[in-house]
Design a protein that fits this description.
single chain, 113 residues, Alpha-Beta Plaits, 2 helices
């Protein structure tokens, strides 16, 4: 099963550089999760003031600032949602206080041509 996870930190200040120790801990976690096959891809996200939410309703587009703080995302391979939750617990221990949104990616069987 594949999952999209989005980390929402509870830090009071966004965009600050983490300490070298924190960077090393995160690097080790990313390396370990990649080698184990859990982690497919991960990247940081821009601070929320650089984000927008685009909506189409009744033929009209609206653009509004995004108000949810997001620190980064990851694509995770896991045997189950519970397995993904356990991997995200390890991530939060290294990343720090925050919330991880976990969304399963629907995988459809190939359709005959």
């Amino acid at each position: 099963m594949r999952f999209l996870t989005i980390y929402h930190p509870t830090q009071s200040e966004e965009g600050g550089m983490p300490s070298p120790e924190h960077m090393a801990e995160m690097g080790a976690l990313i390396e370990r999760m990649t080698k184990s096959g859990y982690l497919v891809s991960t990247e940081p996200l821009t601070p929320r003031d650089a984000c927008a939410r685009l909506t189409l309703a009744k033929g009209q587009f609206t653009v509004a600032p995004e108000t949810v703080r997001a620190g980064g995302f990851a694509f995770i391979n896991a045997a189950s949602k519970d397995d993904c939750i356990e991997a995200c617990k390890d991530f939060l221990k290294a990343a720090g206080d925050g919330t991880v949104e976990i969304r399963q990616i629907l995988e459809f069987a190939p359709q005959p041509a």
